[in-house]
Amino acid sequence: MGIAERKNRQKQALRERILDAARRIVMREGFAALSMRKIADAIEYSPATLYLHFASRDEIAQALCAEGYAHLLETFVPLAGIADPAERLKALGRAYVAFGVAHPETYRLIFMEDPSYTDAALSGAVKGKAADPANAGAASRAAATREDPDATTADEASSETAATEADPGEAALHLMISALDELKAAGRLPASMDVAVWAEAFWANLHGIVALNLTCPVFPTAPLDTVVGVALDAWLGASRAEQVPTGAVASAGTRKKKSPETRTGSAAQPDNHRAAQPLAREPAKAAASGVTAPPARRKTTSA
């Protein structure tokens, strides 16, 4: 190993120590408590040394955001192999909310702290990856892999991994848009549907659920997994396993609320099951219509 390589490794190792210390402070005390001096004390270096690696606290925050967003995308990759596009979108939605609730400080830092931090996260978890010719077109290759009937789940996951490395900001939307394109091609969404706008609206709904949970914990009265399930059904329709005969739900009795420890698990099924074909409607209409069935009209007898 040459001198230059050794110095480069030492520099990289110290950079990682700085980020590790910053991450621990944010997780333990919140972002407001983060300072260059506190980080320097944690790693037993002078503050001046930190400035050789990061120009400011904001630059450290941006690096943490990029790292956290990359972690979020990693949770999406295994879900790419789900065959049914509607169920794939539901799984992505549950994973998104679960990540936000399980990593509140990281989520706040990425999406709720400073727009420049969000830009840093979405512009690329690894600088230079988006410009790397080897990663060009990774998103389209991922979509093509799923369309190939001979493709395996491992192939799909590998292609989706390449897509997330190419451009993390585009990757999450790509995963959603790819599923929406499949729904549209199968006639399960209107032909006039703009899938990119639909994906943005869907993401905004998920973000709202996480943000309310983090900032207004006393606001929701229903368990989080139930709220997520109702929202996903409103957008994508009830899963086949959820479609039960009328009256079966009423006879099942009242569900118990889940404990806080299990609230971030897989989404529970809502007590009021909706019709099975909401996908043919515009998402705005589906969301506006609510999730409870309208009351049955009384029959009137003629005089």
UniProtKB/TrEMBL annotation:
Domain HTH tetR-type per the UniProt entry, residue ranges: 12-72
Chain residues forming the annotated DNA-binding region: 35-54
Location of the region described as Disordered in the Swiss-Prot/TrEMBL record: 137-167, 244-303
Keyword Transcription regulation annotated: yes
Start-end of Low complexity biased regions: 151-166
Entry keywords, A to Z: DNA-binding, Transcription, Transcription regulation
GO molecular function: DNA-binding transcription factor activity; transcription cis-regulatory region binding
Recorded superkingdom: Bacteria
UniProt cross-references to Pfam families, sorted A to Z: TetR_C_33, TetR_N
Keyword Hydrolase: no
InterPro entries for the chain: Homeodomain-like_sf, HTH-type_TetR-like_transc_reg, HTH_TetR, MT1864/Rv1816-like_C, Tet_transcr_reg_TetR-rel_C_sf
Name of the molecule in the record: TetR/AcrR family transcriptional regulator
Source taxonomy: Bacteria, Pseudomonadati, Pseudomonadota, Betaproteobacteria, Burkholderiales
